[in-house]
């Protein structure tokens, strides 16, 4: 047996007090007059013996009561298989309050069971200990140590949250808070369902604090989820029917039949069909989507599933522009074929500008920029075009016959793409067209029948670096490139080997290739905004910046709340840092003035926890090894006693208090009923 506070044993010296009182206790005698003293000696001897016996028993009761009272303060215990740490402790309790914890554990959600376990953990420690209560929200008030009473109040306030954290980040946050105090005895608890995709603590580095894992498991592990949705075409057009692709997953071992999918759009909700999803698989379906107006649109896909419902809705927002804008940059005279090509399509708005008088700040307004016949590309223009492409724009380059190869080489290397070599005055025939790529995909019913491919009377050759990610759209008969595409982050670079001069290159005269090529290049712009964002993942969103005022700020509003995000303006783009201010899925409006909506954003909950795949206690202990201890108890067992045994051994102070009270009661009874 050991003592948690052995210093209290010095109080055993107080046992001498009852002994001293007993030894120096002199009973007052009263005179009693007897008429006959024949039996006086016999009565005196009998009374003296009984009095001495009672006093000794009373003394023993007092000594034992005082002894066990002192032992209660010293808190004796029987050590278990773990080392018992003495002194005050700092205890961190993490309660997993992510959406997966809304699943049922018998008759209550897992999050309620987790809160109950957290209370039992806190109550297992003494009032002088300090506590941290942590959730997935990582709130500022949860980053410090508080008293037991405050910790219990924080636990009561916990609710389900869309935030989800890897457990390694949770342990790092717990370690940071525990080390901020003065306590050397540090203990951490993690109460969670321990989904496999967040339980990444198997290789967590050795820590100075004790780690305990309390697993909770639901009674039913099934879930149907709308994972994502996207349009088949990159740009939505007015009065056109587009196909919205929806991906639905079944995260259970049973087939899901007759899953009803509905679409809420333009104030109406209509069913779009029923799905059957095999067990542990994913299916995709298409929803026809007809757009009848320009401007911003909101839509919501919905299915019915229980009990995990956070991933049953998918919000999306998109903009239908009145015009697709194209900018043509030329040297001396704009190309009449290029202007005629866009003039024939009413949906396009094409503008031409000489290279010497460009407004770089308006580049972002265009879906396609055509660089036509520039003899050289200045460093300023090259940098702006590169930045424009990286943000999602498309750049199409037709070099001049007498192009300055040095300036073009510097321009193309930055993307990077293959570089121009010397111009060759040799007639060549384009031999193949890549109909698998988006630009020419679905353009020709039969690409091999009577399709006249371009002919050039001169062209540049390109270097052939393997790391430049070139994709040939049109190629000469010898396999060299005529028109190539290069990905540039969110945008693309298209470059032609021949100038756009009808005397050298008859591509502008070939309407069946030239017109759809320009059309699809503009439509393939990656500059369009995502139709949906994910909470906790997309913490930085971008929007067009179209004001020169430094006093006005961007604001986000949705679901009854409004806030000002952190904002950084770079050229014609503003980057908004959300800092987890968006807490609920739904639609949000971006504005500077309340009466003018600049952009609509759709946010969805993170699908990371849609797959309900958990560690059971045995596998969890095997996964974490010696880094942590798994506390596996059934739902009806109170955790407090088990923690006390682990932290203090088999505690005996309660028995000491009980025995002390019993001996005090025995003393009272002896004095009351044992008459001399």
Concise overview:
The protein is an alpha/beta fold and 676 residues long.
Sheet of most strands: 9 strands, mixed
CATH class type of the largest domain: Alpha Beta
CATH superfamily of the largest domain: Class I glutamine amidotransferase (GATase) domain
Spatial gap, N to C terminus: 41 Å
* Main sheet strand line-up: 17-16-18-19-26-25-24-21-22
Count of DSSP-assigned helices: 12
The CATH topology of the largest domain, please? Rossmann fold
SS content category:
alpha/beta
In the CATH hierarchy, what is the architecture of the largest domain at level 2? 3-Layer(aba) Sandwich
User: Helix proportion of residues, in percent?
Assistant: 10-25%
**Count of individual beta strands:** 36
Q: Can you give the mean pLDDT? A: 84
Overall 3D shape: elongated
| Range of strand content | 25-35%
Spans of at least 5 consecutive residues with low confidence:
none
Rg over C-alpha atoms, rounded to the nearest angstrom: 40 Å
Taken together, the total number of domains comes to 5
Can you give a write-up of this model?
The structure is a single chain. The protein has five domains: 89 residues, no CATH class; 168 residues, Rossmann fold (3-Layer(aba) Sandwich), CATH 3.40.50; 98 residues, Sandwich (Immunoglobulin-like); 200 residues, Class I glutamine amidotransferase (GATase) domain (Rossmann fold), CATH 3.40.50; 72 residues. Helix content is 24%, strand content 30%. The chain is built from twelve helices and 36 strands. The strands form nine sheets. The chain has a nine-stranded mixed sheet, with helices on both faces. Strands 6-3-7-8-35 form a five-stranded parallel sheet, sandwiched between helices. It has a five-stranded mixed sheet with strand order 27-34-33-29-30, with no helix packed on it. A hairpin with a 5-residue loop joins strand 33 and strand 34. The model has no long low-confidence stretch (mean pLDDT 84).
């Amino acid at each position: 047996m050991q003592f948690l506070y052995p210093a209290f044993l010095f109080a055993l010296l107080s046992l001498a007090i009852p002994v001293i009182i007993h030894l120096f206790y002199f009973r007052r005698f009263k005179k009693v007059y007897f008429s006959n003293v024949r039996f006086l000696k016999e009565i005196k001897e009998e009374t003296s013996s009984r009095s001495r016996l009672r006093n000794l028993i009373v003394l023993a009761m007092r000594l034992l009561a005082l002894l066990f009272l002192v032992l209660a303060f010293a808190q004796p215990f029987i050590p278990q298989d773990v080392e018992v740490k003495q002194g005050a402790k700092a205890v961190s309790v993490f309660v997993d309050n992510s959406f997966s914890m809304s699943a049922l554990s018998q008759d209550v959600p897992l999050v309620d069971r987790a809160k109950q376990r957290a209370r039992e953990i806190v109550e297992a420690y003494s009032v002088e200990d300090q506590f941290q209560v942590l959730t997935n929200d990582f709130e500022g008030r949860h980053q410090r140590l508080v008293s037991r009473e405050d910790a219990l109040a924080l636990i009561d306030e916990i609710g389900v949250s869309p935030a989800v954290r890897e457990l390694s980040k949770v342990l790092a946050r717990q370690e940071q808070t525990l080390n901020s105090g003065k306590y050397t005895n540090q203990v951490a608890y993690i109460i969670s369902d321990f989904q496999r995709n967040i339980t990444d603590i198997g290789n967590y580095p050795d820590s100075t604090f004790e780690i305990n894992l309390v697993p909770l498991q639901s009674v039913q592990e099934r879930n149907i989820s709308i994972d994502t949705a996207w349009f088949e075409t990159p740009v939505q057009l007015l009065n056109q029917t587009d196909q919205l692709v929806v991906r639905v997953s079944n995260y259970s071992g049973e087939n899901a039949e007759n899953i009803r999918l509905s679409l809420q759009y333009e104030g109406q909700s209509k069913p779009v069909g029923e799905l059957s999803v095999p067990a542990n698989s994913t299916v995709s379906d298409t929803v026809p989507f007809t757009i009848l107006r320009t401007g911003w649109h909101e839509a919501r896909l919905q299915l019915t599933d229980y009990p995990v419902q956070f991933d049953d809705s998918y919000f999306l927002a998109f903009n239908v522009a009145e015009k697709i804008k194209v900018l043509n940059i030329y040297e001396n005279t704009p190309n009449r074929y290029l202007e005629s090509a866009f003039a024939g399509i009413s949906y396009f708005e094409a503008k031409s500008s000489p290279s010497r008088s460009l407004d770089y700040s308006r580049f972002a307004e265009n879906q396609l920029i055509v660089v036509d016949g520039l003899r050289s590309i200045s460093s300023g223009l090259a940098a702006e075009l590169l930045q424009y492409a990286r943000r999602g724009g498309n750049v199409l380059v037709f070099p001049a016959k007498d192009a300055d190869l040095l300036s073009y080489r510097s321009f193309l290397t930055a993307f990077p793409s293959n570089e121009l070599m010397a111009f060759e005055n040799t007639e060549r025939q384009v031999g193949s067209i890549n109909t698998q790529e988006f630009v020419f995909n679905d353009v020709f019913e039969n690409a091999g029948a009577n399709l006249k491919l371009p002919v050039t009377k001169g062209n540049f050759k390109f270097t052939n670096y393997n790391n430049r990610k070139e994709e040939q759209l049109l190629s000469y008969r010898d396999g060299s490139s005529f028109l190539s595409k290069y990905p540039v982050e969110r945008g693309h670079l298209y470059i032609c080997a021949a100038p756009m001069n009808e005397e050298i290159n008859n591509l502008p005269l070939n309407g069946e290739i030239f017109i759809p090529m320009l059309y699809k290049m503009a439509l393939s712009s990656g500059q369009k905004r995502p139709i949906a964002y994910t909470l906790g993942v997309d913490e930085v969103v971008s929007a067009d910046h179209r004001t020169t005022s430094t006093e006005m700020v961007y604001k986000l509003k949705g679901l009854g709340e409004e806030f000002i995000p952190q904002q950084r303006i770079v050229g014609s783009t503003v980057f908004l840092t959300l800092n987890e201010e968006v807490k609920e899925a739904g639609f949000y409006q971006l504005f500077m003035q309340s009466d003018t909506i600049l952009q609509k954003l759709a946010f969805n909950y993170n699908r990371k926890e849609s797959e309900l795949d958990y560690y059971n206690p045995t596998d969890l202990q095997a996964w974490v090894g010696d880094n942590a201890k798994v506390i596996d108890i059934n739902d009806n067992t109170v955790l407090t006693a088990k923690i006390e045994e682990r932290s203090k051994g088999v505690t005996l102070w309660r028995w000491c208090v009980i025995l002390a009270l019993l001996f005090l009661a025995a003393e009272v009874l002896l004095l009351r009923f044992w008459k001399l």
